[in-house]
Design goal:
Keywords: Cobalamin biosynthesis, Methyltransferase, S-adenosyl-L-methionine, Transferase
Structural class: alpha/beta
Bound molecules: S-adenosyl-L-homocysteine
Number of helices: 8
GO molecular function: precorrin-3B C17-methyltransferase activity
Strand order of the largest sheet: 3-2-4-1-5
Oligomer: single chain
Shape: elongated
Number of strands: 13
Radius of gyration: 19 Å
Strand content: 25-35%
Helix content: 25-40%
Organism: Candidatus Limivivens merdigallinarum
Pfam families: TP_methylase (PF00590)
Protein name: Precorrin-3B C(17)-methyltransferase
Order of helices and strands: EHEHEHEHEHEEHEHEEHEEE
């Protein structure tokens, strides 16, 4: 059978992969992915064939996976976190229309939002919005509108892709927009290298976050109006009464 698993491998470390993801990688012949993710899993799946393509070559990577599956191989296309959160599962299903003989199965993973939330404590426990600051695939005007409206509605907000070489001031711009509706004292958190070597986190105010430089391996959390700092944890109350 021609089969492709689209696998979310979690934030990085083997322990944060689901058993279902591990089984899919054990059962496949070929693992396809962006170089960095292949390097993360390689040592645990010796004996597999590994095929990599560089970043920004997403369509090529998907076609490569389908062509291998067409040859009769069982293929795993890996993505960091969850493949359905700014990942490849959508594109794989779209391109899959051209390969009706190949069956695509999507396997979920721990996304950076929940992986990072656990490092910080419980920042996202109630309603929250996930917004990517990358304007590669989304017009910046739309990102601005989402930041403004999510802030106005008092959502906790989790930001992916908060920075890159070309977009080093986007987080600052995003904080300025959110401060139109959120207090500058709002409790925020940043987590870098979740589940990877060099994992670090910091809890700070929205005003401080505005003047903080982060990189593309960081996920940013902005609390709602109820979010507190409890010791070294960022906690959004769910609203249970403390009787
Ligand atoms: N599919 C991935 C997200 C890809 S978008 C997932 O579900 O997690 C890439 C962005 O995700 C990064 O810029 C960063 O903001 C966040 N991210 C992904 N993995 C991360 C990690 N291990 N540590 C910190 N942030 C991460």
């Amino acid at each position: 059978m021609n089969k492709i698993y689209v696998v979310g491998i979690g934030p990085g470390e083997y322990e944060q992969m689901t058993l279902r993801a591990i089984h899919a990688l054990e059962n496949c012949d070929t693992i396809v992915g962006y170089t960095v993710y292949v390097d993360l899993v390689k040592e645990h799946f010796a004996g597999k064939e590994f095929l990599t393509t560089p970043m920004r070559k997403e369509v090529d990577r998907c076609i490569l996976a389908f062509e291998e599956a067409k040859k009769g191989k069982t293929v795993a296309m890996i993505c960091s976190g969850d493949a359905g959160v700014y990942g490849m599962s959508g594109l794989m299903l779209e391109l899959g229309e051209n390969y009706p003989e190949v069956q695509v199965e999507v396997i979920p993973g721990v996304t950076a939002a929940t992986g990072g939330a656990a490092v910080l404590g419980a920042p996202l426990i109630h309603d929250f919005c996930l917004i990517s600051l990358s304007d590669l695939l989304t017009p910046w005007e739309k990102i601005e509108k989402r930041l403004l409206l999510a802030s106005e509605a008092d959502f906790a907000i989790c930001l992916y892709n908060p920075s890159s070489k070309k977009r080093h001031d986007y987080l600052k711009k995003a904080c300025d927009l959110m401060m139109q509706h959120k207090s500058q004292e709002t409790v925020c958190g940043i987590v870098k290298n979740i589940g990877r070597e060099g994992e670090t986190y910091q809890i700070l105010t929205l005003k401080e976050l505005r003047d903080t430089e982060v990189d593309m391996f960081t996920t940013v959390f902005i609390g709602n109006s109820q979010t507190q700092r409890i010791g070294n944890a960022m906690v959004t109350p769910r609203g249970y009464r403390h009787d």
